[in-house]
Amino acid sequence: MLITVKILKGRECTIQVMPEDTVIEVKAIVERELGIPPQEQRLVYKGRPLSDDQTLTDCNVTQNAKLFLVVKKTSENTERTAESKEPALWKELNTFLTKHYAAKDIPHIIDQFKKDLEKTVQSLSLDDIERIATVNLKNQQDAAATS
């Protein structure tokens, strides 16, 4: 039978499965089609998350059903995403540190800086975040008004 798997706010694919296939087997097919590892996948059908050991029949999944795929954030995935969004920061920090520290010490310094930064960000309260957002929004509005 054919079913559609759609990533929330993303791509979708139609895959060929059998009613007796387990959810973990479906996740393996989805990995081949969309490149998302099974451990990062959560499949949802009719508002209910599907358990890896259940078959599609157990979950009442039928021909032409649409399953939604929620991509779970793993710590490795989170680190990869953070690095891809901020490579310029770490490159700039590395450039700065090479002027003042031995090359062998720089990776340790950057790792400690990342840990300290993460700890500081995690300790922010919602009020702190709101204040930061308000100041940044005001600065953007002021910059837009002057240009």
Automatic annotation (TrEMBL):
Location of the protein in the cell: Cytoplasm, Cytosol
PROSITE patterns in the cross-refs: UBIQUITIN_2
One GO CC term on file: BAT3 complex
Example GO molecular function: protein-folding chaperone binding
Keyword annotations of the record: Cytoplasm
InterPro entries reported for this sequence: Ubiquitin-like_dom, Ubiquitin-like_domsf, Ubiquitin_dom, Ubl4_C_TUGS, UBL4A-like
Main location: cytoplasm
Domain (Ubiquitin-like) ranges: 1-76
Biological process terms in GO annotation: post-translational protein targeting to endoplasmic reticulum membrane; tail-anchored membrane protein insertion into ER membrane
Protein name, entry field: Ubiquitin-like domain-containing protein
